[in-house]
Amino acid sequence: MQETINLESVAAQYKESLKYNDFRIVICAGTGCMANGSEKVRNAFLNYIRESGLHVKVELKPEENHKGIFLSESGCQGFCQMGPLVTIEPLGLLYVKVRPEDVKEIVDRTIKENKAVERLLYEDPSSGEKCKGIGDIPFYTRQSRFVLKQCGHINPEDINEYISIGGYAAARKAFTTLSPEDICKEILASGLRGRGGGGFPTGRKWDLTRIQQEKKKYVICNGDEGDPGAFMDRSVMEGNPHSVIEGIMIASRAIGADEAYVYVRAEYPLAVKRIRRAVEDAENAGILGDDVFASGKSLRVHVMEGAGAFVCGEETALIASIEGKRGMPSPKPPFPAQSGLWEKPTVINNVETLATVPLIIKMGAGEFRKIGNAKSPGTKTFALTGHVRNTGLIEVPFGTTLREIVYNIGGGVTNNDGTLAEDGFKSVQIGGPSGGCLTEEHLDLPLDFDSLTGIGAMIGSGGLVVMNRQTCMVKIARFFMQFTQNESCGKCVLCREGTKQMLALLDDIIEGRATVETLELLEKLALAVKKGSLCGLGKTAPNPVLSTMKHFRKEYTEHVVSKWCSTKNCKSLVAPEINPELCKGCTVCTKKCPVGAISGERKMPHKINVSICIKCGACAQACKLNAITGV
Ligand SMILES: Cc1cc2nc3c(=O)[nH]c(=O)nc-3n(C[C@H](O)[C@H](O)[C@H](O)COP(=O)(O)O)c2cc1C
Ligand code: SF4
Ligand code: SF4
Ligand code: FES
User: Which of 77, 401, 462, 552 has its CA at a distance of 20 to 30 angstroms from the CA of residue 607?
Assistant: First the structure.
């Protein structure tokens, strides 16, 4: 029989060992910072601290009770663009863009003299002031880090550290004092909705699975995350993998499952490694396995690497993939809750959903409901990218406005060259390939599941791409269409052929072959693909096209009628223009223009009215000074 772990004594021992450290240096070891060389920074710290004759520890051991410097790693801290990030505790200093060459100065000044290295502190571009730590950086202060709270603070590869912050106490409560029905009731009362895109009430899903008569049941954690640009789930798995395992444990107890799977895409090697390590450590600690917390229940968790297809994130395709079949969706009903993995009742939840669960059990449904808004309680993580000053991983309560995210957390819209663009906002693409584009009129809309579906968009899994006025919305629609077309599994004709045709029509628009009828056809086809596809991929694939057509109709019309792209992104549709530096105002072009599109006073630079111009080229041919382009 396995020994039952005493969480409190593990936590107390860990906290005791922490006391024996003058400093803790936390180096971000998330994928972003690793790509920017955080491992080299860590090695430089290790070597220089040793060279300096100081005592350095990379692991906390209870028996090591003499003072030293604790060099530790964390998962993604969110501000990846500023990485590699290094935090020095207890001073609360956050150093950004740290290179191995900076390490000597940090140790000499900060560790030995308790002074900050000013040049490595983040400078707030709006005020020009240096920020000491995350408590002063607007990117962080405007957020509510709830699920991500410990990512960036704890070492994801140390189970004792997770236990020391109260980890696994919620799982123990679930296995020892709560009945499956109690857990389902609590999660239902919390109003928690799935973060994988659909927003389905988690408590209802669990309860449906709980009441199934089958003895064998499964829990699956969906860590596939195939949306382009999204990395929220990856960050949770890399930064706090035990919170995901604990969520899986509570879900398993709620439905009566003794086996669970974590399905992680193979392109996430660090997430795979940390989740595997977390499962192994939880097994070795006696948390997972037989007789969990002396409850008489057992639980085995398997980690499986996904095949890297976007459609494998769809629940029925994912189940097929675990069963060793080709990852293709199948019709529902039956729902996985009734007949899922190997035809057994199965709960499938997103990573972020599961990582929220232990927090709810710990704080209670009532407290959880105080975060977010009535129909969408809690917080949501987003991958904020595109034309904003601060890109990265953010977390905000549901109901936060787009304006707050773009201007306060994101620091404002930027031009293509990265400079701040006052009044440069054009749109936000939300929800990845399943989502839609929001405009200026939506800047004050509270972001939650229902308000977005109300305007034909969706929260999706959390991709947020900000776009400035230099962005061509037709090209954006094409980008997502290309993605879904590539990823269609081919099972449904409308998804397989319809997305191909939609892509071809978008190409016609971009390359100047389209007419007004093309737009009508595109719209019709989009609605047919939505209606006639089996799974969410096909059903939502037309969303970026439909929403850009709705909110940026003028841009589409310009492409097909005037044959020009106002943002100059479509090479075949460059707008006709007279270069004022070259034009001497000779009026030759004015006389040649058959539609009267050119105006201007004699001896002054002339102008072309692009909405009248038919691009016949007569003016350019007549102009001796080669001042006219784009016709
Ligand atoms: C094409 C497609 C891809 C999907 N990819 C993911 C994914 O990567 N991660 C995820 O959690 N859900 C994904 N989903 C949603 C899942 O099918 C499922 O609804 C979700 O995992 C349920 O968990 P939740 O209730 O916690 O949101 C996808 C759906 C579709 C249609
Ligand atoms: S809608 Fe597309 S991705 Fe989904 S099953 Fe049909 S063909 Fe496959
Ligand atoms: S291209 Fe033709 S229609 Fe357009 S401004 Fe020149 S002459 Fe006029
Ligand atoms: S990976 Fe370091 S902040 Fe994101």
Answer: 552
